[in-house]
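Design job #97: recover the sequence.
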């Protein structure tokens, strides 16, 4: 397979061409190119270019494009290959749209090839509104999926990048949203090394990500978009980052307006650029002309930044014409094609996570059902399909529509009631609270089985100010189902009929009532424009569930530390002390498995790592898609819980056996000390190989435990 990085000769030529081009610009022209809306410079043959584009789970905000499941849903697939395939599809549509837009002279925002994705922040607290943009709470999983996504976006051509990816928000950024412009995230060196930095490091060193975006907040006192520690010492000097750094949008004015680390705009832009921020999402960098005249920034520093930016544009082939880049010929017909729809449906299927299936209530048998009731505020809610930073699909299939379509050729009748508002006490403005409860009671009374669709949508959890969020600037005030949704579930349960709960949300919800009273529970995330079809197929057995939780589902928010506390103590599965409702890494299938013949090539951890072999067999009667997970725990009272260190997706027909052969690298056993320095400590280690965490709650839910291996160092 081709290398991820461009070949050195080509890269050197881009840098030289960029340097020569920049040498012919005036100071004012250079500064103009450091804004996200970079104007044309006709005398130098430079076209206008807008750097700001979004591609979190599909090309966003620029018309029709495939809307894949939201990032957290893609993460639930635990599948690096799928993630790269989806990202490659996104970049294909991006090129197709870009080629058409260029043909018609359109250089507006969201029309470029530089994407502010992926978001590899750690989802450390389920109340954070933007957590559904991430790949969950685990640094290993986030690293693997972030690298895969970048591979797909940037391509493997060797001479040209397909699109430019951006790892964001660097670093230590996960709420609260309403104070992000003034907040100082305090993290120990140990937590930085073990939790907050690994995914960014992997994106730089393994995936050669072209861009890194700074966060709004301060980290340990330094504003992230002007942090010498983050941008210079770690990113460039330690990791060898060779791309460009972009500020989060209008973040640099926060330096003097809210962080109070500078006195005015001129000082703020000087701090940002001197510490390595090359591109301003916003317009405050216009003050760089004054900063140079005042001696706060050298023109050589400006040249360095602008050269980096034009190197990126040259890598994308924006200064080469015709057939030079293989991506220039991608036609608009690649957008929203049948192939894209098929991939989107596959991704939707593989993100759905089965949390409970008491008595094998799922899949449902359509031949034994006369009437299905589909109820709940998310049953017919398009917003709950897509999450935020979304594009526009040519068709949306809600859960209600998916079930109606699936049963269209049968005698089964589908009844529908919204049941309640998503978060308000009533649906009608002049009505009394609970104004749809009599209707939902009637619908449930008529049904043989009830599909209750509850949860959130991006109007309740998301970025500050992004979609007019109802709660706490996008953050959740608690983990409860909002409004009257739990009362809705109680009405369904009281009917005495079989109830299946489908929760659509981008984050963990306290589903304790549902877990105690409802036999079948599906976590659907925001499953993409075709998500309703995927849910229907899973409910009736055309598709099988295979996803795992990329975040912990807590019993209640009382289990959580203060939202503003960035210490990892008692946070996420790696450090939490209480039992989860549904643990990280957990998810059921419609089949079953056994893992046998587990062997290691050594009983001692060496610098060559540890090779593990095993046989994984599908012992059920249906196709099995499972994620083999390997966890490592150092046997010390102060060590973290067992941590995920390897994943392998396996697909097996009934009776089929897969020969697993993996190597845990030496680094998989390393822990950071108080100074953030990694080492493999002497002593005993436990390695667990299975399809879940090795915790007691996972064992209870799965009905089996991972195989335990003992190693020493």
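Job complete. Output follows.
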């Amino acid at each position: 397979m081709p290398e991820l990085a461009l070949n050195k000769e080509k890269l050197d030529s881009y840098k030289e061409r960029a340097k020569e081009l920049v040498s012919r610009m005036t100071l004012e022209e250079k500064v103009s190119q450091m804004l996200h809306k970079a104007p044309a410079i006709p005398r130098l043959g430079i076209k206008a270019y807008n750097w700001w584009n979004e591609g979190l789970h599909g090309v966003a905000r620029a018309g029709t494009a495939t809307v894949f499941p939201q990032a957290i849903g893609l993460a639930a697939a635990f599948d690096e290959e799928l993630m790269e395939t989806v990202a490659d599809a996104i970049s294909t549509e991006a090129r197709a749209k870009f080629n058409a837009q260029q043909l018609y002279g359109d250089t507006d925002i969201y029309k470029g090839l530089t994407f502010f994705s992926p978001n590899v922040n750690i989802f450390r607290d389920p109340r954070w509104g933007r957590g559904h943009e991430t790949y969950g709470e685990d640094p290993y999983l986030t690293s693997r999926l972030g690298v895969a996504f970048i591979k797909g976006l940037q391509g493997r051509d060797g001479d040209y990048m397909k699109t430019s990816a951006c790892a964001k928000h660097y670093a230590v950024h996960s709420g609260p949203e309403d104070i992000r412009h003034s907040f100082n995230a305090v993290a120990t060196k140990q937590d930085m090394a073990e939790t907050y930095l690994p995914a960014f490091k992997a994106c730089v060193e393994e995936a050669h990500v072209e861009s890194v975006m700074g966060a709004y907040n301060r980290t340990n006192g330094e504003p992230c978009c002007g942090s010498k520690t983050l941008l210079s010492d770690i990113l460039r000097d330690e990791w060898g980052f060779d791309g460009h750094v972009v500020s989060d949008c209008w973040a640099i004015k926060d330096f003097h307006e809210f962080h109070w680390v500078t006195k005015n705009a001129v000082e703020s832009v000087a701090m940002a650029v001197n510490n390595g921020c090359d591109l301003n999402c916003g317009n405050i960098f216009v003050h760089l002309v004054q900063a140079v005249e005042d001696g706060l920034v050298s023109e050589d520093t400006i040249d360095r930044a602008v050269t980096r930016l034009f190197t990126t544009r040259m890598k994308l082939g924006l200064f080469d014409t015709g057939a030079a880049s293989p991506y220039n010929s991608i036609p608009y017909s690649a957008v929203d094609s049948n192939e894209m729809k098929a991939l989107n449906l596959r991704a939707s299927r593989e993100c759905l996570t089965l949390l409970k299936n008491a008595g094998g209530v799922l899949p449902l048998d359509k031949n034994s059902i006369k009437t299905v009731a589909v109820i709940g505020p998310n049953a017919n809610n398009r917003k709950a399909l897509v999450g935020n930073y979304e594009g526009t699909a040519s068709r949306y299939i809600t859960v209600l529509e998916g079930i109606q379509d699936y049963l269209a050729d049968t005698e089964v009748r589908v009844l529908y009631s919204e049941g309640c508002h998503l978060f308000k006490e009533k649906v009608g403005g002049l009505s009394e609270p609970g104004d749809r409860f009599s209707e939902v009671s009637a619908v449930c009374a008529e049904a043989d089985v009830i599909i209750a669709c509850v949860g959130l949508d991006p109007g309740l959890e998301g970025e500050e100010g992004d979609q007019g969020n109802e709660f706490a600037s996008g953050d959740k005030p608690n983990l409860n189902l909002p409004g009257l949704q739990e009362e809705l579930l109680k009405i369904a349960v009281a009917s005495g009929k079989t109830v299946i709960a489908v929760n659509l949300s981008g984050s963990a919800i306290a589903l304790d009532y549902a877990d105690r009273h409802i036999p079948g529970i599906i976590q659907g995330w925001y499953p993409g424009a075709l998500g309703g079809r995927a849910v229907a197929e899973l409910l009736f057995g055309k598709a099988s569930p295979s996803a795992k939780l990329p975040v912990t589902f807590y019993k209640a928010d009382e289990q959580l530390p203060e939202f503003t506390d960035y210490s990892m103590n008692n946070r996420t599965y790696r450090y939490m002390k209480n039992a989860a409702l549904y643990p990280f890494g957990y998810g059921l299938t419609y089949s079953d498995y056994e893992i046998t013949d587990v062997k290691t090539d050594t009983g001692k951890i060496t610098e060559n790592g540890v090779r593990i072999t095993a046989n994984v067999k599908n012992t059920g009667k249906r196709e099995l898609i499972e994620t083999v997970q390997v966890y490592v725990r150092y046997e010390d009272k102060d060590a973290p819980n067992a941590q995920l260190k390897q994943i392998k997706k396996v697909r097996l027909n009934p009776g089929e056996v897969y020969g697993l052969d993996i190597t845990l690298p030496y680094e998989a056993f390393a822990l950071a000390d108080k100074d953030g320095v990694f080492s493999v400590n002497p002593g005993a280690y436990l390695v667990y190989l299975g399809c879940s965490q090795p915790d007691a709650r996972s064992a209870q839910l799965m009905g089996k435990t991972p195989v335990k291996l003992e190693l020493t160092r």
